[in-house]
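seq/struct pair 1
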Amino acid sequence: MRNILVCDDEKDIVKAIKIYLSSEGYNVIEANDGLEALEAFKNNEIHLILLDIMMPKMDGLTTLHNIRQESNVPVIFLSAKSEDTDKILGLNIGADDYITKPFNPAELIARVRSMLRRYMDFGEKNKSDIVTIGNISLNDRTKIVEKDGSEVNLTPREFDILKLLMNNPKKVFSPKEIYVKIWGEEPVNVDNSVAVHIRHLREKLEINPAQPRYIKVVWGQGYKMEEM
């Protein structure tokens, strides 16, 4: 059974989400502020987190920052429409996705199911899952990325984007193509989520992110992985 931590200061929202997810067979652990979420995260094996942004005691952004010091567990922000700036900031510090409140229960369940399928149900893997380009190595079995032999700490979204690019060297993917393949859905509005994740990958993998050696932009078309 997958353990999902749901954190929102509105208790009715937490209870509603628990009903939706429990009906799908997930075990829901509740929290109503960032401090409670961190405590629950430390005391339980958490497979996915649904995290509100605006909360008392400790907000979602600060909570996410603390979680990312220890884990790459998938995190989906729950945000109000007025919190667009915070959503972008959340992606900047390691959120994998966000859902705008009020949300459709079916959409919530679909997002959760898709995220868990991508990052928890890996299936049987073998050594052929290791892809190496230059000094970067990606192991799809262990979900570990190494640069010059040292492990690089990536979020699940960053890992999947890098995997897509490394498995298709020199192929150009538009931001929309990347979004559809990685998020598993059509973008409703112009979304800079891909650009944010690409920037993070460059910061973590490139010697000089401003002049990337591996993850290149093809102006007006998209991104590609340069084969060394």
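seq/struct pair 2
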Amino acid sequence: MLTGQYAHSLDAKGRVNFPVRLREELGERFIITRGLDNCLFVYSMEEWQQLADKLSGLPISKSAKLKRFFFSSAAEVEPDKQGRILLPGHLREYAGLVRDVTIAGVSNRAEIWDTARWEENNAQLTSEAIAQAMDELGF
């Protein structure tokens, strides 16, 4: 399970040091693609295959847009010896990543956020909003 929150910075080449703990869970190679809320989703190869299988099991009328969104922008990455990964330019642009990034483990995937956007997004997560969401889901 991917957990934790990590603050890092992009270098001039668009590389970021990816947290050791998350690398250990994700494996030697993993997939980065566009995510919701203008962040990037990071999947292990196994989780990526499960997503692909689920989408392939849907009628094309329901899956075409999702497949385009996730698969057309996906990049397979492998950390270098220093633990850095290169974030492709189209993904950095999509997520608005310029310098400071937050990498968060969120159960079966990690997310990469522009730090300011991460903080803004989390400011909306009040205890009351979380309690209401939990009630709606039957927790």
